[in-house]
Write a structure and sequence with these properties.
Radius of gyration: 28 Å
Number of strands: 21
CATH architecture of the largest domain: 2-Layer Sandwich
Order of helices and strands: EEEEEEEEHHEEHEHHEEEEEEHEEEEHH
Shape: elongated
Oligomer: single chain
Strand content: 25-35%
CATH superfamily of the largest domain: Chloramphenicol acetyltransferase-like domain
Length: about 400
């Protein structure tokens, strides 16, 4: 009995998806849980896996728009043993008995004609073997067998190239414009001396790794300081819903992660209850899934505040854009040694600019400045976190 392939649910707000790259062409054999194709949604790309082993039959092509729970193909388990195109050259399900090769075999021919009725089983096996040898590798087979994209091919001239935007990129663009048009976004800046945090990391790094099996990074310090500031200034952890202000009594911190296919914002949930090691472990796992394009909608939903780090790309300062419906986002930046005045003495310190963008409809300027100052003080004096100051 054939097994249906359906478009899975990908979050409450996602009702449709676009067929992206087809990884296994229709007619090929697949293994259970093998990657079949990519689904592009307005929030994330998701890989669709084979629900069973057998021969794949797809009823969609690249570029098609499909609905959630729509059947887009089947798998016939009866043909599960059929050699697949990615089996590789010279690899077949059974090794044929030695027999003289056919008297004439066309060179570089992609496929041999199917044996006529009445041909002996041995001859049939030899023909299958030769067909397998002349068959392209999996990468080439995917390119040759995949149907042409519905979207027009990039139009290239000597001066420019035009290519249609992906659904994910179009949605990101729309959301950025919505944020500008639907919020009263402002940004306040400050700078922080990272000497204390860097000294702790250098002093405790070896012991931390031995005990927890993961490096102590900067992000866990920022998550902890942000949670403390959010507890002190609840307006920043709130959101507007119609004519109501919704105050969150939990602290789910969204962390912006850059990937090949765009920006993903996975969520570290209940960050107020996590240790530094637990934060670093969760962050590493989520970042790896995001960069591999395997992160789920559930892992990116429901954050109350966002942290983004443009410093890993060398940015000295920037104005981060809100992640709706959240009301605040903190921007981290590059750490640069600069001369500053400390007790009327000029000293060289590792300094970082901080940027807090906020929705002025719900957060007053004084609250935003005080929130950022709270973060600055706790980073410059980490002992304040222990004393809940």
């Amino acid at each position: 009995m054939k097994v249906e392939i359906k478009v899975p649910k990908m979050g409450e707000s996602v009702v449709e998806a676009t067929i992206g790259t087809i990884l296994k062409p229709s007619g090929s054999s697949v293994k259970a849980d093998e990657e079949i194709l990519e689904l592009e949604t307005e929030k994330v790309n998701q890989v669709l896996y084979a629900p069973a082993a057998g021969q794949l039959s797809l009823s969609v092509k690249q570029g098609d728009v499909v609905k959630i729970d729509q059947t887009i193909g089947t798998i016939d388990p009866a043909n599960a043993s059929t050699p697949s195109a990615d089996a590789g050259p010279n690899r077949i399900s059974e090794k044929p008995k030695p027999t003289p090769a056919p008297t004439s075999v066309p060179k570089q021919k992609p496929e041999l004609p199917a044996p006529a009725a009445g041909v002996s089983p041995i001859r049939k096996k030899v023909d299958e073997s030769l067909s397998e040898i002349t068959r392209p590798t999996s990468a080439a087979a995917s390119l040759l067998a995949a149907p042409p994209s519905v979207s027009p091919a990039p139009r290239t001239s000597s001066r420019e190239t035009r290519q249609k935007m992906s659904r994910l990129r179009r949605t990101i663009a729309e959301r950025l414009v919505q944020v500008k048009n639907q919020t009263a976004m402002l940004t306040t800046f400050n700078e922080v001396d990272m000497s204390a945090v860097m000294e702790i990391r250098e002093r405790e790094q070896e012991n931390f790794q031995k005990k927890h099996g993961i490096k102590l990074g900067f992000m866990s310090f920022f998550v902890k300081t942000c949670v403390a500031a959010l507890q002190q200034f609840p307006d920043v952890n709130a959101r507007i819903d119609g004519d109501e202000i919704v105050y969150a009594h939990y602290y789910d911190i969204s962390i912006a992660v850059g990937g090949e296919k765009g920006l993903f914002v996975p969520v570290i949930r209940n960050a107020d209850l996590l240790s530094y090691a637990e934060i670093e472990t969760q962050l590493k796992a989520l970042a790896e899934k995001a960069r591999a394009g395997k992160i789920s909608m559930d892992e990116m939903a429901g954050g109350t505040f966002t942290i983004t780090n443009a410093g890993i790309y060398g940015s000295l300062n920037s104005t981060p854009i809100l992640n709706p419906p959240q009301s605040g986002i903190l921007g981290m930046h590059n750490i640069v040694k600069r001369p500053i005045a400390v007790k009327d003495q000029v000293v060289i310190r590792p300094m970082m600019y901080l940027a807090l963008s906020y929705d002025h409809r719900i957060i007053d300027g004084a609250t935003a400045v005080s929130f950022l100052m709270h973060i600055k003080k706790n980073l410059e004096e980490p002992s304040r976190l222990m004393l809940d100051l």
